[in-house]
Backbone:
């Protein structure tokens, strides 16, 4: 069996097995057994608190008690707003937490009239709840604060009891999406206390439904914990509960385009990151909690700890502005050294024409032009091998009983005609890192989030709503196969390969239209390049309006 046929059958079999396993045999999400913390929440519900499984994420992962009765529980609930250039944050004194975190530049839907995206996805379990780990018995899970000061740039909240006083201050920072959170805790007892200052962030993931045979192809954008520990970015996608200790620069929760990260102001090798996943309705709530090194609170004295919160898009300039290698949260894969320059090129083209769809086209054409010499050499090698097929066939017939002699004669033939059997493969291998890097850029770039192109293409980050580009791409793949020399395949194999354009078209139905535009332009360019080479023409001939060769190429 020929190599191409074996490869095709392997691809088809792998896809069929993976799709069947995903649909019929994939394990259900793990069920988390009730823990001590769950019992606390259920007990609180029995005493009249709202009943909700999601409540568990409102307490720190390590908490084992719901704390004392709140002496300020009868205060009226108030909401104050911080209004920055990039976001509006509404903070309630009921827990001292944000209940909305809306980003001005990013909408929920493709239309500009849509509401701004809100990074508080768990209103019942809001983020940035403060806890004294190890001293949970001194502070209620959801203390009712007094609003001591509030304006458009900062808010100060105070909670007091006989044993502890907490002052929590939010303030907008000069960084685009940065917010400073300062927590001051006063020990009012006559004995020293020790605990960890901690802030958490929660996000809700909806249920992922199995909708059919091709559901596994459709990308799912969910929130996952991410953190920077000991100089390396790590991600947690499955663990129900875990903790990390060490030199943690930052820890948070990410999606494909957005990031919420907690940064300690004081570096320490004893910083702790707590990660938890809890069932909530049909989905789950994800929590990442950053805890400082153990802090001693001397009797009758106060200790202050500062945090910085980043809540915004995974935009490389904004992340770099934070100065703690937060930009490494953008995952460009192994070829990031190529991906970053490609991203800057994409932004450069956007500055010129103010349309990311056109910017993708220009970027793809530029990369194809830069790789043109390599691609041309590959095509020439494949054409040369095709021209030698009659002689190769005669050699195989003549020496079919002597494989060693056949190989020697074939090598002599290649040498005489300066043909390299691998010449069509090596240039293509050199292009693979560029294509993978470009794919990663288009897949991860928040610049394409809700970015319009033209007509009904209002969101380059969403699949093509009318399937026009996937169908055109299938046609382009078909033309590429017809035009590309296939010297080692017999007619039966070539017919089998015709199903590949159909497969690629189906796969592209579920990918973002920005990616499909890139692949379509790339394929169309390759088709044009192959057509010109087959006719013995160059791009300069096409620009001059000449589509027929001055003389037919040899063996053409």
Residues:
């Amino acid at each position: 069996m020929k190599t191409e046929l074996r490869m095709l059958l392997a691809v088809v079999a792998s896809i069929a097995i993976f799709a069947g396993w995903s649909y019929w045999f994939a394990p259900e999400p793990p069920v988390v057994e009730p823990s001590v913390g769950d019992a606390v929440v259920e007990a609180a519900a029995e005493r009249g608190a709202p009943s909700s499984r999601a409540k568990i994420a409102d307490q720190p992962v390590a908490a084992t008690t719901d704390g004392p009765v709140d002496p300020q529980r009868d205060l009226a609930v108030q909401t104050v707003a911080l209004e920055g250039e990039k976001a509006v944050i509404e903070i309630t004194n009921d827990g001292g937490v944000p209940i909305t975190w809306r980003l001005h530049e990013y909408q929920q839907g493709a239309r500009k009239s849509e509401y701004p995206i809100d990074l508080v996805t768990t209103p019942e379990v809001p983020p940035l709840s403060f806890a004294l780990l190890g001293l949970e018995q001194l502070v209620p899970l959801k203390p009712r604060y007094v609003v001591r000061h509030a304006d458009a740039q900062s808010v100060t909240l105070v909670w007091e009891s006989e044993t502890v006083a907490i002052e929590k201050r939010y303030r907008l920072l000069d960084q685009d999406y940065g917010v400073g959170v300062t927590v001051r805790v006063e020990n009012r007892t006559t004995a020293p206390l020790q605990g960890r200052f901690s802030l958490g962030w929660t996000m809700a993931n909806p249920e992922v439904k199995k909708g059919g045979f091709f559901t596994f192809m459709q990308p799912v954008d969910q929130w996952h914990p991410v953190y920077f520990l000991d100089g390396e970015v790590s991600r947690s996608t499955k663990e129900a509960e875990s903790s990390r200790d060490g030199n943690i620069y930052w820890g948070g929760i990410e999606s494909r385009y957005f990031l919420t990260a907690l940064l300690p102001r004081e570096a320490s090798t004893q910083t702790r990151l707590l990660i938890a996943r809890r069932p909530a309705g049909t989905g789950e709530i994800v929590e990442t909690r950053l805890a400082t090194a153990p802090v001693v609170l001397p009797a009758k004295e106060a200790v202050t700890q500062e945090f910085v919160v980043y809540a915004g898009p995974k935009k490389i300039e904004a992340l770099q502005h934070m100065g703690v290698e937060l930009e490494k949260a953008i995952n460009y894969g192994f070829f990031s050294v190529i991906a970053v320059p490609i991203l800057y090129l994409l932004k450069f083209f956007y500055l010129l024409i103010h349309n990311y769809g056109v910017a993708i086209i220009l970027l793809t054409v530029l990369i194809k032009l830069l790789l043109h010499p390599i691609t041309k050499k590959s095509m020439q090698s494949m054409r040369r091998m095709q021209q030698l097929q009659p002689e190769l066939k005669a050699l195989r017939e003549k020496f079919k009983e002597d494989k060693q002699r056949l190989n020697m004669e074939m090598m002599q033939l290649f040498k005489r005609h300066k043909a390299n059997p691998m010449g069509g493969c090596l240039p293509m291998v050199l292009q693979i890192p560029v294509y993978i890097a470009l794919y990663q850029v288009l897949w991860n770039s928040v610049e394409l989030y809700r970015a319009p192109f033209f007509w009904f293409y209002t969101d380059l980050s969403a699949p093509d709503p009318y399937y026009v580009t996937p169908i055109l791409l299938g046609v382009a793949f078909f033309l590429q196969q017809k035009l590309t020399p296939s010297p080692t395949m017999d007619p039966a194999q070539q017919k089998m390969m015709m199903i590949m354009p159909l497969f690629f078209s189906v796969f592209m139905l579920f990918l973002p239209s920005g990616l499909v535009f890139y692949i379509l332009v790339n394929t169309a360019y390759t088709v044009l390049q192959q057509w010109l080479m087959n006719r013995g023409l160059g791009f300069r001939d096409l620009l001059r309006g000449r589509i027929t060769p001055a003389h037919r190429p040899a063996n053409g």
In short: The mean pLDDT is 80.
